[in-house]
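Narrative of activities, Objective 1.

The group set out to show that a structural description can be obtained from nothing but a protein's sequence at a throughput compatible with the screening campaign. Below is one input-output pair from the validation batch, recorded exactly as produced.
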Amino acid sequence: MTAHETVHAPAFAQITRPQDVAPALRRDLADCWTAVINAGGAVVPLGCPPPPVSSPAVGPALDAIVQRLAPQRSRLLLATVEGVLAGWVLLSREQHPLEAHYGTVNHLQTHVRYRGTGVGAALMRRLPGIARDEMGLERLRLAARAGLGLEDFYRGVGWTEVGRWPGALRVAPGDDRDEILMSLAL
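Output recorded for this entry:
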């Protein structure tokens, strides 16, 4: 799939409970994450070897995400195109009482077959309504790695850069990147 091919509008689904992640969906999520990591587009989860990785390598991190799912605490938003997982993102409520009105967005992933087709932007445009209307959140935050143009992508879907941690992310020896802090009022 390339940006020049016609892609049907994605369909969306939410997963809010661990028991709703069937084995086939878990495999699709892991395969998507693996493809994104191997293409240089995702942070490698703790305990996972450096790229290239295999789907079993992301399994423990994916299982931890799935086990934390709960309707008012954490949920996955999935985008499918013609029944195939095209991307996903994690939305989590902050647990500390001083931050419970905030949500954190992590792991936005568009499968490499669907890059450039608008799937990632569609997920990010859908997310604020879910956060506000279904979880009662007032603001979202995320952190992105500099050097990939991600801040431009997120600005394009309404987010604001609110700060940077210079050199906070060490991608490789001698390759330190800023961590870009972004926010979205709901």
